[in-house]
């Protein structure tokens, strides 16, 4: 399962976390390690599944997606509609960019990206409220988002 | 302002963010220098904010992931700022979001196991300033991850 990682591994993760295109040499210089040693550690982190590829981070507003809404969804008819059906249908909506199955007040948490509030309303009414088994929905409009480095 | 070339590059790159500019150039039949220059321009314009590494916390030994939905006591002056500043001091907080809606703020928190979670929750989270109400959603599974944008 979980392999042991040391402080040097964590230092490497801290560097690549926000700058994944750096060469092994550049990462090594940032953490005080040789290029080959850094390369070996990066490979080990990838093989252990700790580093799971890259992600492009955009300024969504500048790309014309002015509204991000988080939805809490409670299924109304558990047992009658399968979770698989709901998950398949919700994942097929392009504006729904993230779907998480959660435990608590809601069953699912959705991240929806839309052009504007009118566009969001269209997605909510025509697509999300029409999903099989959907019950209570709560919408919260994202105002700001700050990613933290986490325990590295 | 996005040009057609930018859109082609971003569409292809979103599908496979591990590609290097030279791979993108080959795939799109563009000169490598053009791709490098376009990417540089997208960064300078702030459209592309960065290329991040995706870290799997579970593989690092953090098995528990909780989304905390928080309502603040807004009668307190600067409640948002004070809360956010204190939340930044907790290393296990991986994301801080603010909202317009029933929920004021949301924290993504990770923990090694339930015992670690309980300790964090009691000693670090519940002691954060100006909390009026707090509700936890425990992460079970990610069904769909950040899908590509229709650029």
UniProtKB/TrEMBL annotation, chain A:
Q: Tell me the Gene3D superfamilies matching this sequence.
A: 3.30.70.920, Winged helix-like DNA-binding domain superfamily/Winged helix DNA-binding domain
Every HTH asnC-type domain range: 5-66
Q: Pfam family of this protein, just one? A: AsnC_trans_reg
One GO molecular function term of this record is: sequence-specific DNA binding
Stored CDD domains: HTH_ARSR
Q: Its GO CC terms?
A: cytosol
Keywords (A to Z) from UniProt: DNA-binding, Transcription, Transcription regulation
Transmembrane region(s) = none
Write down what this protein is called: Leucine-responsive regulatory protein
From which lineage does this chain's organism come? Answer: Bacteria, Pseudomonadati, Pseudomonadota, Alphaproteobacteria, Rhodobacterales
Q: Which gene encodes it?
A: lrp_8
UniProtKB/TrEMBL annotation, chain B:
Under the heading InterPro entries, the entry gives:
AsnC-type_HTH_dom (IPR000485), Dimeric_a/b-barrel (IPR011008), Tscrpt_reg_AsnC-like (IPR019888), Tscrpt_reg_AsnC/Lrp_C (IPR019887), WH-like_DNA-bd_sf (IPR036388), WH_DNA-bd_sf (IPR036390)
Q: Which domain of life is it from?
A: Bacteria
Q: Which Gene3D superfamilies match?
A: 3.30.70.920, Winged helix-like DNA-binding domain superfamily/Winged helix DNA-binding domain
Leader sequence segment:
none
Q: Which GO terms describe its molecular function?
A: sequence-specific DNA binding
Question: What is a biological process (GO) this protein takes part in?
Answer: response to amino acid
Q: Which GO terms describe its cellular component?
A: cytosol
Keywords, comma-separated and alphabetical: DNA-binding, Transcription, Transcription regulation
Where is the HTH asnC-type domain positioned along the sequence?
4-63
Establish whether keyword Transcription is in the entry. yes
PANTHER family recorded for this chain? Answer: LEUCINE-RESPONSIVE REGULATORY PROTEIN, TRANSCRIPTIONAL REGULATOR AZLB
Write down what this protein is called.
Leucine-responsive regulatory protein
* Source organism (scientific name): Jannaschia seosinensis
